[in-house]
């Protein structure tokens, strides 16, 4: 057998496949070994320059190795600041909390408490669950079809995608899934405003039905724009309805902004589009400025848990806090939230144009720089709403064609048939145009490879 040439992508991937667990995921679809990275670009070990529209699954708000982030990390090292402090406080932590709280709507900030969690989004979800269960004394939770909250036991229990759940018996019980307003595949077969209005009415009736089978809820968790669920934004009116429904019934509303947090949707926090505030806010990804960090910020009225109720060793990552401060300040000073809205619109315009020349794009949607293109099978009949069945094979083929053109995109949504764009917020207009041009070519090539053409 011939061995793969050392130093190539294939060489590293072969080693990875030999050593790493079968649970590894991204390298199966993005088969490169990364040598260096800057801004929206990554360079693989063979010297190919790729446009990275995955950006650490939305983590890299400022792109790879932004000078402000690198500077903050270097300063932490040069000044001999502690790198690890459990949850003991430090000047960096103090500054981080002040910076974060000054980004929150003032009436939320004035009542806010923060818990530093283990460094993953999923651990912050676990903390939020324990917080609301402790405070309410209740055990059941509402979550949503298509929602994604992470891979730990509790977080996975709240996640819609059944794939990773099927082989894990004994997940947390008492989780009740409600319909999310997904216009293209409206759970009520209605779509548009009517679909989401019926959705909030259905939720109201469910909450108020003494025979709904659900014991008193500890909370309701949702994403304002479902990320892994396929870049599905919830309408503002629906969010306001849910805020009122939960408030009036004393149900803590947990908003998971792990992916949307910090400017990505065109506002600092995605919930601000609807003018609401949550009771509990979950943050990770962008807040660590590329490094691992996660927190839960919540209304002090819920602060009923005991000392050590969510302790853990890695909750004081000073470099992540320093990088997070640099990220927040850069987003603020460069108005990257506004920029994300503008660039998002530029993307949407071009993607809609690509849709008009394609026969396999069913829907183009998103908010700011969280965008999804749903790939469908138009050779099969549409449903009553006019929506076609998902076409996961074609979506994979488009992703492969994108890789051939050095464009990194990820798939998500139902059956993995939504191509997702999550570029860094610093993307320039020229880069948006280049990404869309490469995507258009990839769609055309993938469509031409369908049997209907041969
Ligand atoms: C909305 C949301 N919540 C939670 C998580 C879990 O975060 P982590 O992967 O850091 O555990 C993710 C990850 O993508 C996410 O998008």
Characterization of the model:
- It is an enzyme of class 2 (transferase).
- InterPro entries: Aminotrans_3, Aminotrans_3_PPA_site, Dat, PyrdxlP-dep_Trfase, PyrdxlP-dep_Trfase_major, PyrdxlP-dep_Trfase_small.
- Belongs to the class-III pyridoxal-phosphate-dependent aminotransferase family.
- The protein is of the alpha/beta class.
- It has two domains: 9-65 and 335-448, Aspartate Aminotransferase, domain 1, CATH 3.90.1150; 69-333, Aspartate Aminotransferase, domain 2 (3-Layer(aba) Sandwich).
- Helix content is 37%, strand content 16%.
- It is built from 14 helices and 17 strands.
- The strands form four sheets. The protein has a seven-stranded mixed β-sheet. It has a four-stranded mixed β-sheet with strand order 1-2-3-15.
- A hairpin with a 5-residue loop joins β8 (225-226) and β9.
- The radius of gyration is 22 Å and the shape is globular.
- The model has no long low-confidence stretch (mean pLDDT 96).
- Pyridoxal-5'-phosphate binds at residues 57, 120-122, 125, 148-150, 223, 227-228, 256, 258-259, 284.
User: So what's the oligomer here?
Assistant: single chain
Q: What do we call the CATH topology of the largest domain?
A: Aspartate Aminotransferase, domain 2
CATH architecture of the largest domain: 3-Layer(aba) Sandwich
What small ligands are held by the chains? Answer: pyridoxal-5'-phosphate
Catalogue the unreliable spans. Answer: none
CATH superfamily of the largest domain: Type I PLP-dependent aspartate aminotransferase-like (Major domain)
Largest sheet, strands/sense/barrel: 7 strands, mixed
**Integer count of domains:** 2
Strand content: 15-25%
Number of helices: 14
C-alpha termini separation:
35 Å
**Structure classification:** alpha/beta
GO molecular function: diaminobutyrate-2-oxoglutarate transaminase activity; pyridoxal phosphate binding
Enzyme class: transferase
Family: Belongs to the class-III pyridoxal-phosphate-dependent aminotransferase family.
Keywords: Aminotransferase, Pyridoxal phosphate, Transferase
């Amino acid at each position: 057998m011939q061995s793969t040439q050392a130093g190539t992508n294939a060489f590293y991937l072969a080693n990875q496949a030999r050593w790493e667990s079968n649970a590894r995921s991204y390298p199966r679809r993005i088969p490169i070994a990364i040598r260096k990275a800057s801004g929206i670009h990554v360079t693989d070990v063979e010297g190919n320059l790729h446009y990275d529209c995955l950006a650490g699954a939305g983590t890299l708000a400022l792109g790879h190795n932004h000078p402000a982030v690198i500077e903050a990390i270097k300063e932490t090292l040069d000044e001999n600041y502690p790198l690890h402090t459990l949850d003991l406080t430090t000047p960096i932590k103090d500054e981080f909390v002040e910076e974060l709280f000054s980004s929150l709507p003032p009436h939320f900030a004035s009542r806010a408490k923060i818990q530093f969690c283990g460094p993953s989004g999923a651990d912050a979800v676990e903390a939020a669950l324990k917080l609301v269960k402790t405070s309410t004394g209740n055990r059941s939770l509402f979550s949503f079809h298509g929602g994604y909250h992470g891979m730990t036991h509790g977080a996975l229990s709240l996640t819609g995608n059944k794939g990773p759940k099927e082989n894990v018996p004994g997940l947390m019980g008492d989780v009740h899934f409600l319909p999310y307003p997904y216009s293209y595949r409206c759970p009520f077969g209605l779509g548009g405003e009517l679909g989401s209005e019926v959705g909030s009415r259905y939720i109201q009736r469910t909450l108020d039905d003494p025979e709904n089978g659900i014991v008193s809820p500890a909370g309701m968790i949702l994403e304002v724009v479902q990320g892994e669920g396929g870049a599905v934004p919830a309408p503002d009116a629906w969010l306001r309805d849910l805020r009122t429904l939960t408030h009036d019934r004393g149900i803590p509303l947990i908003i998971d902004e792990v992916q949307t947090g910090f400017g990505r949707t065109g506002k600092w926090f995605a919930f601000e589009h609807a003018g609401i505030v949550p009771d509990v806010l979950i943050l990770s990804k962008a807040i660590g400025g590329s490094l691992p960090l996660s927190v839960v910020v919540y209304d002090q009225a819920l602060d009923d848990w005991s000392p050590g109720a969510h302790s853990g060793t890695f909750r004081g990552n000073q470099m992540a806090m320093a990088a997070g401060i640099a990220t927040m300040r850069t987003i603020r000073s460069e108005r990257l939230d506004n920029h994300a809205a503008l660039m998002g619109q530029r993307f949407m315009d071009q993607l809609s144009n690509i849709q008009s020349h394609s026969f396999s794009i069913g829907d183009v949607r998103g908010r700011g720089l969280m965008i999804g293109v749903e790939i469908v099978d138009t050779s099969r009949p549409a449903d009553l709403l006019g929506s076609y069945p998902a076409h996961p094979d074609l979506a994979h083929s488009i992703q492969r064609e994108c890789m051939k053109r050095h464009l990194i995109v990820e798939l998500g949504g139902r059956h993995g048939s939504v191509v997702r764009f999550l570029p860094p917020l610093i993307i320039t207009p020229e880069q948006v145009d280049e990404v869309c041009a490469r995507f258009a070519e990839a769609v055309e090539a993938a469509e031409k490879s369908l049997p209907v053409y041969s």
